[in-house]
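Notes, p. 3: input format for complexes.
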Amino acid sequence: MLRFQKLKQGMIVGSLWLAMLGIPAGASAEPNLNNGKRLYKKHCLMCHGLKGEGRFGPNLTDNFWLYGNTTADIIKIVTEGVPDNGMVRWEGKLSETGIVDVVGYVESLKGSNPPHAKAPQGKEYPD
Ligand code: HEC
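Output follows (127 residues plus heme C):
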């Protein structure tokens, strides 16, 4: 019973999250990290570094974020980009599922502390 309630809560939170992101109900928001990694290497590595350590673009592995640290914040920035500052707008270039996958992969790099990391940019979000 408890387990069921937990599951139900998770489902409600899950579908709220989906609605917030504009993902049609029924689509899976569970990121596919293998696909995310593949997309990251293909599209993000050149600016954010092989391990997310930052290069032209910011370090994606630390606790400092220019545009916020929640999954929704990261999905928003990846979707809309900041064309004036050199961050590509990925909407239309990657599918919604692709964006969820690549953001899941970026989130998996958090705290990995790669060598040659770029100096922090933005605001610190403590754990
Ligand atoms: C052509 C270079 C370039 C590419 C390619 C690129 N980015 Fe960026 N990205 C940037 C720059 C530059 C910024 C910082 C924008 C600013 O200063 O306003 C940024 C910012 C970001 C941020 C926000 C970081 C923060 O501190 O809030 C995220 C997340 C991000 N990029 C993810 C990605 C992902 C995922 C991809 C691949 C799908 C990608 N970027 C591809 C250059 C790039």
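Helices lie at 2-21, 33-43, 45-48, 71-80, 96-108.
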